[in-house]
Design the sequence.
């Protein structure tokens, strides 16, 4: 990505306050989803790769929706 480019990313939020038990959560699908994130862990991963979270949308459903930009 070029500096200033934007990335829209959505992923299940394993730490969401409305997440059901894993056995009943429709987003828990190994091996389709191998890694699960919280907003904090996703932010750390993005920073490690030169991206910063520019916007984060509130989600009633257990998911993370962010726009990240290349630093």
Sequence:
């Amino acid at each position: 990505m070029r500096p200033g480019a934007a990335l829209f990313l959505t992923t299940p939020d394993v730490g969401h306050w409305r997440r059901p038990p894993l056995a009943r959560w429709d987003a828990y699908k190994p091996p389709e989803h191998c890694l699960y994130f919280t907003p904090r862990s996703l932010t750390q991963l993005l920073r490690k790769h030169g991206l910063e979270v520019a916007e984060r949308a509130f989600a009633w459903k257990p998911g993370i929706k962010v726009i990240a930009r290349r630093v």
